[in-house]
Amino acid sequence: MLARTVAYQRLRKILLSGEMTQDEPLSERRLSEQLEMGRMPVREALKELAKDGLLQVLRGRGTFIRQLSLDEVRERYEMRQALEGMAARLASVRGVTPELRETHEKLQRFHAFKGADIQEIQKVGWKFHQEVVHASRNLELVRSHKTLDAQIMLALRFAAQHQSIRIHRRACGEHIQIFEAIQQGNADMAEQLMREHLAHSLAARAEILTSIKRKKI
Fold first, then answer.
1. Residue 139 belongs to what domain range?
2. Per-residue pLDDT tens for 142-191?
């Protein structure tokens, strides 16, 4: 595997993990030392991540983690509704994958256990959406969703920390309903439930993002 590909994959994982701050420019030197790689593959990886919409280059200031506005988050959720709604429909027609079934079983355990960890619920929730997309067996849909998914995960990684367990448990229940519609082969219901779930998710996170923005002013 090419060094720049390795650097890209590792940096992307670090970005989405929430380890980096949004307010400070990224340093090629420090990242090279952290990854124990040369600066050239790191520089190329940063350029690719900027193309993916995860980083932004500000002239005279440096490269920063991209911060989406609330309107940009809404736009991406509208795209998610289209892509994931279609994915749920296709998965209903083409059948549940073993990976999607396994994720559903984890969701059921979380939903039944009131002491479940919020971060774990969130992690499995993101995994559920990804597995629904993969269950569509549509490679172009999967490719389109991958970049969009990363942009939203990056934008909402801080907002998710402020969500209550009640919101996460409601989302968990909605995931289970979506799976059941897919398993039953009810394409119309699966698509409708996915779109409604994403609308609920956007409303909850928009409220949190607005609150965080007000506190910064």
1. 70-216
2. 999 998 999 988 877 766 655 667 788 899 999 999 999 999 999 999 99
Joined together, the tokens standing for residue 22 give: 């949004």
Residues 15, 107 share a domain: no
Listed in sequence order, the DSSP H helices in the chain are 3-17, 28-35, 39-51, 70-94, 98-112, 118-135, 139-156, 165-183, 187-216
- Final residue of a domain: which of 42, 65, 88? 65
DSSP calls for 2-20? -HHHHHHHHHHHHHHHT-S
Half-sphere exposure of 127 (CA within 13 A, CB side): 15
Looking at the structure, tell me whether residues 47 and 135 fall in a common domain: no
What are the two backbone dihedrals, phi and then psi, of residue 58, each rounded to the nearest 5 degrees? Answer: -105, 120
Residues 113 and 83 in one domain: yes
Tokens 């549940």, residue located: 96
